[in-house]
């Protein structure tokens, strides 16, 4: 869906760490020519376009052109609507935030109709940095 997700209470370092976890799920293969980037914030009912800064950040991280998720579709694999470029879709879904402020989220890389890797993480602060710590719950399709 177009539009920006609910990122209230999240700073840039937290968003970077969460999307680093998504990219770590699967790097783009040689056949990928673009990246699609989406996010579902805690109060969102569906995946929305990731904030523009994050779209750029993820594109730079994988060294491919990046577009918001609403500019992509999927068939056998995700692709950019305008160019038909074969893409990988990175999404982050915020699941919860407990009373202590601990954030739980899913980070997913979708690279084909039958190809996706995802894992659940808790975002913790360690040595002045935000670190995604895997909960041990994952999915492979």
The number of strands is 9
The outline comes out as globular
Q: Please mark out the parts with pLDDT under 50 across 5 or more consecutive residues, or reply none.
A: none
Radius of gyration: 14 Å
Biggest sheet architecture: 7 strands, mixed
Protein structure class: alpha+beta
Number of helices: 2
Return the domain count. 1
Classify the beta-strand content into a percent band: 35-45%
Can you describe this structure?
The strands form two sheets. Strands 1, 2, 3, 6, 7, 8 and 9 form a seven-stranded mixed β-sheet that branches. Strands 4-5 form a two-stranded antiparallel ribbon. It has helices spanning 12-25, 52-62, and strands spanning 34-40, 48-49, 66-68, 72-74, 78-80, 87-97, 103-112, 115-126, 129-140. The longest helix has 14 residues, at 12-25. It has two helices and nine strands; from the N terminus they run αββαβββββββ. The model has no long low-confidence stretch (mean pLDDT 92). It has one domain. The protein is of the alpha+beta class. 37% of the residues are buried.
Topology, pairings included?
Blueprint: H1 12-25, E1 34-40, E2 48-49, H2 52-62, E3 66-68, E4 72-74, E5 78-80, E6 87-97, E7 103-112, E8 115-126, E9 129-140
Parallel strand pairs: 1-3, 1-6
Antiparallel strand pairs: 1-2, 4-5, 6-7, 7-8, 8-9
Helix pairs in contact: 1-2
In short:
With 141 residues, the protein is α+β, with helices and mostly antiparallel strands. The protein is 18% helix and 45% strand.
């Amino acid at each position: 869906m177009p539009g920006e997700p609910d990122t209230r209470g999240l700073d840039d370092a937290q968003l970077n760490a969460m999307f680093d976890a998504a990219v770590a799920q699967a790097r783009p293969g040689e056949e990928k020519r673009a990246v699609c980037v989406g996010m579902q914030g805690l109060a969102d009912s569906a995946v929305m376009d990731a904030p523009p800064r994050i779209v750029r950040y993820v594109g730079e991280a994988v060294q491919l052109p990046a577009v918001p998720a609403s500019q992509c579709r999927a068939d056998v694999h995700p692709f950019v609507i305008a160019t038909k470029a074969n893409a990988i879709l990175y999404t982050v879904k915020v699941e919860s935030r407990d009373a202590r402020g601990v954030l739980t989220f899913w980070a997913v890389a979708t690279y084909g109709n039958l190809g996706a890797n995802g894992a659940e993480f808790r975002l913790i602060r360690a040595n002045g940095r935000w670190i995604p710590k895997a909960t041990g719950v994952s999915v492979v399709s």
